[in-house]
# Entry
Amino acid sequence: QQRVVLLDPSEDPDDILRANRSRERTFVFDMVFDHRATQEEVYASTTKNLIGGVISGYNATIFAYGPTGTGKTYTMLGMDCEPGIYIRSLEDLFKALEATAEEMDYTVSMSYLEIYNKVIRDLLNPSSGFLDLREDSRGSIQIAGITEVSTTNAEEIMQLLTKGNRQRTQEPTAANKTSSRSHAVLQVTVTQKSRRQAIGEEMRIGKLFMVDLAGSERAAQTQNRGKRMKEGAHINRSLLALGNCINALSEKGGSRAQFVNFRDSKLTRLLKDSLGGNSRTVMIAHISPASTSFEESRMTLIYAYRAKNIKTQV
# Structure
């Protein structure tokens, strides 16, 4: 339940010369799921307990990370019969908010965007063109001109997200027929205000980020050329920036003070508060059991293992 053992497919047990250079590795995580795990199990173990925090005014972030074709979009969006983390967490969020409706006034607004080739596109209103990241006077990052939808109906959201996902940049590569070529970020903001006049001035704001990252890939594996190759380079560059931030954050308590370069990419700038700020963060790493993906699986597990060492002060 907590261990992943990665066996090297090219290893020969009779090869005495290479006996000490085995690439077999064991990784320990908070939770490990095999191919039999259901969407409900994954949601209950990773995300369910973050919802209460969002209502109390803490931020929460869920990442889906991994090589192309390992099921990140399935985990996050799911299908109509097996909804993913997006829908399950919003359903729980609305249920919990309705339970406090007598004492609190609440609004829930959401936006859905993609970062593709270093530009930001609004998936709920794709015709609005490329959007800019701006910092407001309090230092929080805003996206100028993004569409925000307020709703309390999970089915309505499912339709919006499915429609938004169709607008997402997807292209076939040798590794995956519908490869996501962009990072999709669903941002849900919960604002609550007490109905009692005496403390009516106080507001609680909690943000829930759900990030379906683009597949980390090696050009050799996806056989990309031309435009696909350029997209892959941009994807890998932004994932590298995210990896650098994770490295710096996980070493922060160490001997040398690390500078965390959030400005390296739009993805890390947008997620600055989620990674190093007042936030609880979960990374769901996806790997493929195929022996051809050994290298990708190894890199993904090392990446996720590093992310495990980040300690933030909530």
Notes: The CA atoms of residues 21 and 72 lie 32 Å apart. DSSP finds ten helices and 14 strands in the chain.
